[in-house]
Specification:
seven-stranded antiparallel β-sheet, Protein phosphatase 2C domain-containing protein, alpha+beta, seven-stranded mixed β-sheet, PPM-type-like_dom_sf, globular, PPM-type_phosphatase-like_dom
Amino acid sequence: MATIVHPTRFFRESDMHQPELIDVAGGHIVAFSKTCPGKTEPNDDSALVISLSADRFVMAVADGVGGAPLGYKASAIAIECLAETLSESFAGAGDAVVDQLDLRPAILDGIEKANAEILDLGTGSATTLSIVEVNHRIARGYQVGDSMMLFVGGRGAIKWKSTSHSPVGYAVQAGLMDEEDAMYHDERHLVSNLVGSREMHIEIGPAINLSARDTIVVGSDGLFDNLHTNEVVQRCRIGKPGRRMEELVRLATDRMHGEDDALPGKFDDLTILLLTP
């Protein structure tokens, strides 16, 4: 895998065959984004990795709404607006200054800017957006929609998992439905909160202290609609960074092509960002 040394890396309309390794503070981000098998339209997923200083970076995944006009355009706008507000907020500041600044206002401004620009398209386009900021090994997630974030400890304990902004996701969070039933629910793919909606709202997660062996997964529903959470946890935390990603991609792709009704399986674009030690 090639190591990307640039401070900002965009993934838009990507159809990758191999993951890419990006060096960040305290570890690596492995990135992968591929178009749904058999699909002729562009990949509706987009992703971003941006390093702001020696100890701070942000990563994000956006999944343009499938079937909606210009879903790929909406997801690209989302990550571009986020990168723009982050870059503008810290332009010209040295690492020492950036390390003292709060990332939250710039991240929230980026989401609001993206929402306004997508609405201005007037096409009905929309996208999910999941963002993780890491500041001196303290991580926090920001969520709109059903692209998911998962913080996993070195021994496999889930430190934090985002909530899918959907009727099924809220039912799971409330304890009214377990994850197994949710994977097969007829309304699993209905999303109740999107960038590109006048009713958009932003969920901000807790600050999580990362230990040396912790892993963070940010993925579109091409991952989380095809793999159970425990399957993601098992594969994301063991082995070399590239090997972890390859295992996730292989199983998700196999599930898309699978014929076993007892296992989840849904054709979709697939985008994963994996933060590893």
